[in-house]
Write a structure and sequence with these properties.
The protein has about 350 residues and is α/β, with parallel strands linked by helices. The protein is built from 13 helices and twelve strands. Helix content is about 45%, strand content about 15%. The strands form three sheets. The chain has a five-stranded parallel β-sheet, with helices on both faces. Strands 8-9-7-10-11 form a five-stranded parallel β-sheet, sandwiched between helices. The protein has a two-stranded parallel ribbon with strand order 4-12.
Length: about 350
């Protein structure tokens, strides 16, 4: 039988980690119903809506609400406590029977709610992690994060380029390189180009009607490209939820905008909209120079490679995407790419500091 009626778990969840989830699950085991209140300050770099969505996904059986709380904490100042409580009770009106925390302020918070305090793992022995530790080193805390948080924090690296310039070879080689580092990096993935899979299916469908069909007989429409871009995004997001702190992508939805130009001409607003998202961190543009053109049955644009390299370069520059050009031999290309990715990872994750706690 549950010991409490309504339980409350309150925190920043900046970002949520295993300790937070242990707290919520403990409350769920002991209460008839549970409310999780996510409080975010305006200065913090992870949006409140994202944190609420993450907690709702991981805990679908509890009520999760959010509130903006821009009041610095001072555990010794009753007026500051009153200001915080005005935020809390506005978000969670009504009776609270138990307040679950792992913090020293738990007793006072419960007293002000007229509830019983329940202290859960204050020494962090069950899950030795904290929000501060995650913000300082997400990769080091990776196994304490749930899939939606991993997806948001994964550094995504895109390899793109004209036909037969080694994009697939490089993307897969990069994933294999980081997997060899072991530990959490052993889960590094490469997301293949969906556009190629789509093209193969088009050719196969045509050959079922016309067995002698060749690649030049396949036709595309502008409506094909939003589907390609959306599917590429979805596959990347799925891989980021289960992989390591870095994900390699053999082209992306942004590249699809240029492929639309290549096959249809002009731009498609739906593709542009699908590609306009801030989830990638580095683009590696494979140059066509020094790479022999190989016709694998789905290529016919050797003479267009210089134009495509130029279009990718121009669009990456126009849209402000951070990129480097990859040239040289296969080994040189891999070495250049690894240096760039190592630099991205060394730069770390940039969380703005939470509001200070006055003591």
């Amino acid at each position: 039988m549950k010991r409490h009626g309504h339980g409350l778990v309150l925190g920043k969840f900046y970002p949520p980690h295993a300790g937070h989830h242990h707290l919520v699950r403990t409350a769920t085991d002991r209460c008839e119903r549970v409310t999780v209140l996510v409080c975010a300050a305006s200065v913090e770099s992870v949006p409140l809506a994202d944190r609420v969505a993450w907690m709702r996904e991981v805990h679908p059986d509890v009520r999760v609400v959010g509130a903006v709380d821009d009041i610095p904490m001072d555990l010794e100042d009753p007026a500051v406590w009153d200001a915080h409580m005005a935020v809390f009770t506005s978000a969670v009106p009504g009776r609270v029977d138990a307040v679950f925390t792992s913090e020293e302020y738990g007793d006072e918070l419960a007293r002000r709610f007229g509830a019983e305090p329940v202290l859960v793992d204050p020494a962090r022995t069950v899950f030795p992690v904290s929000g501060t530790a995650v913000r300082a080193d997400p990769a080091g805390c990776w196994d304490f994060l749930e899939p939606p948080v991993r997806a948001a924090l994964t550094r995504r690296v895109v390899v793109l380029g004209a036909e037969s310039t080694g994009t697939t070879t490089l993307a897969r080689a990069l994933a294999a390189h980081y997997r060899r580092r072991g530990g959490v990096w052993a889960r590094t993935l490469c997301v293949d180009e969906y556009g190629r899979e789509f093209s193969e299916s088009k050719l196969a469908a045509l050959r079922r009607r016309w067995p002698g069909a060749q690649w030049e007989d396949v036709g595309f429409t502008t409506d094909d490209f939003p589907l390609i871009a959306e599917t590429q995004n979805a596959r990347e997001d799925a891989a980021a939820r289960v992989g390591s702190p870095v994900l390699f992508c053999d082209t992306d939805s942004f590249a699809t905008t240029v492929w639309h130009e290549r096959y249809i001409g002009g731009r498609n607003p739906l593709v542009e909209k699908t590609a306009d998202r801030n989830t990638h961190h580095l683009w590696l543009l494979t140059d066509h120079e020094g790479v022999a053109f190989e016709d694998d049955g789905l290529r016919d644009g050797e003479e267009l490679r210089p134009w495509m390299t130029g279009r990718f370069r121009a669009e990456l520059t126009r849209t402000g995407r951070g990129f480097i050009e990859i040239t040289g031999s296969r080994d040189e290309r891999l070495a250049t790419a690894v240096d760039a990715v190592d630099g991205l990872l060394a730069a770390g994750w940039h969380f703005t500091a939470p509001l200070p706690e006055r003591r």
